[in-house]
Amino acid sequence: MKRVFIISIIITIFLPFAQADEGMWLPYLLKQLNEKDMQSKGLRISADDIYSINQGSLKDAVVLFGGGCTGEIVSDQGLLLTNHHCGYGRIQAHSSLEHDYLTNGFWAMNKSEELPNPGFTVTMLISMSDITAEVLKDVTETMSETERNKIIEKNSKQIIEKATEGTHYRATVKSIYNGNQYLLFVNEVFEDIRLVGAPPSSVGKHGGDTDNWMWPRHTGDFSVFRIYVGKDGKPAPYSKDNVPYKPKRHLSISVKGIEPNDFTFVFGYPGTTEQFLTSWAVELIQNQTNPIAINLRTQRLDVIKKYMQEDRLTRIQYAAKAASIANGWKKWIGENKGLIRLNTIEKKRTLEAEFTQWIAKDKTRQQTYGDILPQYEQLYRQTARLSKEDSYFREAVYSIEIVRFAWAFVPLVNLLGSAASADKIEEAINAHAGRIEGFFKDYNPTLDKEIFGLLMQSYYDNTDKSSFPPQTEKLLKSYKYNLKALADDIYSKSIFLQPDKLRSLLENKPAKIVSSLENDLLFRLIRPVFANYIQTIASELDRLETQIDSLNRLWTKALMEMQSDKTFYPDANLTLRVTYGKIDGYQPADGVSYKYYTTLKGIMEKEDPEIYDYAVDPKLKQLYLTKDYGRYAMSNGEMPVAFIATNHTTGGNSGSPVLNADGHLIGLNFDRCWEGTMSDIEYDADQCRNISVDIRYCLFIMDKFAGATHLVNEMTIVEN
Ligand code: ARG
Ligand code: GLU
């Protein structure tokens, strides 16, 4: 009795609390792990107000937007906010030279003008729970990784079936702590999501790729959608008879404003963090993967930018593509700078040395964990060479648009040559024919040809010559290894560059399709290269990665045991998380100090009609000159645009609601500061800041700039 009592006291006293600002916490554990800490830092609501499966909570207003962003519901009619860059694909898909919504913005002035996006979904979490024991049932320590994965898959399937039985819900099982624990997520997936509004790019993408990942920032990075459901209130595919969704909960919006050190939290879907990487893994990223990708993307972007500047159509066609290429490129540059500045590799080595000492102190530890580090070293030595080939393959060969397009026909050729049923063949042919138009809508062959010449050359110069199988080698030789000459021939002769001819070909008998494609110059070039890549690089890397995964599981378990006084958050894995911190500026370099917010004045200061990224809409300027900000101004009369805080966020958190101590919406997360982009690997409280667009700026743009006041009227606006 007494002993139990003493133990419980010790547990309460030493129950480890999370350290400042770092961490992406599981909503269902907030009460247990974070509530006290959050409230001590200023939170005025309870963990149950944020996440509860028994009563309505903020979680009912937060959704996974598409497959990689977050959105939040802000009205009782299913109105949804997310970032402009998250809605970008949809906005672009509805854009053409006549209706250039990217450039001019789009506002539905009533529900009938809202634009459907068939195939696009948002996902809402119903519940999450720990199901580790059920998932690992029948798994033993001694079984192989393949066997283990088979059992886990089988168990997960059963769990998912049981969890969704008799409902329209969908469920997934995901592991956390590198496979040491498993969680079940039950979701509702909405399928009729309509575009309601988007500011012009000069607002929504202000600063473009020039300012991307940087502070100070002036991007009005938001767009507006609406969830529609069937008449029964349940998710349904697009139909004009669908009705706006009535959510269990929508967020209230605060126009009170923010002060330094105010408590804030971000509720959303962070994609990936990797806090448990070893020194070898970080070395590989910092010294090989990032530099290769940065170099190849620099070449690609230079070409794309040149063509975009010259031609308006190309600018529309490549806007989204360029943004996505540049986004990774710039992040990796920042990440490398951060890793070098923080000396992360050395810190990891020190931790590994500590670990070696820790296991040396205990025989059982030595037995269970003694092989981990030597095995890592060996596995990463093997991985390095293959990973280099892989990086070049992905960032060079596979990044050439026409190559990717043509490659998608390989499975078709294989299928047509097989004994597949006539139905299946017809279906496959139709699917391929159906993709042609979409591809060419956003394609510039002259631009792509230039990229082909550059990237293929890099691939040829930098990879193992065994990446070029004999057939390819012969073909290259016939061009005297002049890849530009080869590109000339491909881009003028290949059927993949002639949409009409390709379409007609697909109307022929399978044998004719196969023979024509197999004789095509581009097809002949890439088919063996891809086959070789799959056989000698990808499959071998997969094998090594499976071994590394299994080691990661053990390493994570061991580290958590060694540092048992620390509360570890599970790495981000695109599941709903809460991260919290405070509004705060930072010092990026000696002698430089950044304020925590920006205003409309900054947009005027940066204005440059010659530079696309810094163009200012005349209407916005007018509002600025007359200071016509309505209730959205700060107390000093200025118009806020963006702010930063110490929340630990990552890709996927884009569009996430940034909330104040009362759980009211104050902004939309959309980026991180450049000095902190290494936070997926190492978080640094001094330099890591998330960037949000101030909700008052979004409302101002909707209301005063776009005249979409009806949208603001739909929302619940509060002054606290
Ligand atoms: N860096 C932000 C994110 O990772 C914004 C990206 C979109 N903006 C851009 N200029 N490319 O998603
Ligand atoms: N822009 C990112 C996104 O799309 C968020 C920035 C980050 O990586 O933190 O999710």
Structure overview:
The protein has 720 residues and is α+β, with helices and mostly antiparallel strands. The protein folds into two domains: 1-121 and 191-272 and 568-670 and 684-720, Thrombin, subunit H (Beta Barrel), CATH 2.40.10.120; 279-553, no CATH class. The chain is 48% helix and 15% strand. The protein is built from 28 helices and 22 strands. Strands 1, 2, 3, 4, 5, 6, 7, 8, 9, 10 and 11 form an eleven-stranded antiparallel β-sheet that branches. The protein has a seven-stranded antiparallel β-sheet with strand order 14-13-19-20-21-18-17. Strands 12-22 form a two-stranded parallel ribbon. The protein is globular and about 70 Å long. Mean pLDDT is 95; it is low at 1-18. The structure holds arginine and glutamic acid. Arginine is lined by residues 85, 205, 208-209, 212-213, 323, 326-327, 651, 654, 670-671. Glutamic acid (GLU) binds next to strand 20.
- Categorize the overall geometry: globular
Q: What name does CATH use for the topology of the largest domain? A: Thrombin, subunit H
Strand content: 15-25%
As a percent range, the share of helical residues equals 40-55%
Structural class, from helix and strand content? alpha+beta
Q: First CA to last CA: what distance?
A: 49 Å
What is the level 1 CATH name of the largest domain?
Mainly Beta
Associated small molecules: arginine, glutamic acid
Regions with little confidence, pLDDT below 50 for 5+ residues: 1-18
Radius of gyration: 27 Å
Question: Which architecture of the largest domain does the CATH hierarchy give at level 2?
Answer: Beta Barrel
